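Build the 3D complex.
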Amino acid sequence: SQTIHQWPATLVQPVGSPLSLECTVEGTSNPNLYWYRQAAGRGLQLLFYSVGIGQISSEVPQNLSASRPQDRQFILSSKKLLLSDSGFYLCAWTRTNEKLFFGSGTQLSVL
Amino acid sequence: DAKTTQPTSMDCAEGRAANLPCNHSTISGNEYVYWYRQIHSQGPQYIIHGLKNNETNEMASLIITEDRKSSTLILPHATLRDTAVYYCIVRVPNGGSQGNLIFGKGTKLSVKP
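Done.
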């Protein structure tokens, strides 16, 4: 069966520090991969999606970047975090483009 | 922007059916209606989806009006564990940006004992 792993679960980082969140999917190949963010009290916002290795599409301009170095690995990064980067980050995947499967999320607090 | 309209919140008594409405008056012919839910501090969970026929699975039923401009998610016997934010989403199920989920604010369902 397919599983998605996302870590860390919680993260507290100072303003200006770098960020790296990792997401991996097991049990499937060539998935579409997604990064979403949910700010406190707000809905989910699609940040990036990828349909293959090295292929990244950005949905909104921002302080973050994404990379897909391997088929089932998706990384969210920042060189210098801003206060506004705080939020709940979710990785998701789909193989059939019908159902999206989400990870358990990372709660990021930038102080 | 989300292409759906949902009530901000709803209450339901435990054991009763929960009926969550969604308006999607601008839905196009190839867009499906999807429902997800998000329990606090967890990732969203897929519930059900449909094009024009009513659908049922082990979690819920989806009733889509004949003109497809609205739909209702039905949880037949709500439990306390069904308390969550429920998202109604319309999308084209293919690759690329057209197929990506756009979440609105959803309906906060509170199931009360």
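The CA atoms of residues 66 and 76 of chain A lie 5 Å apart.
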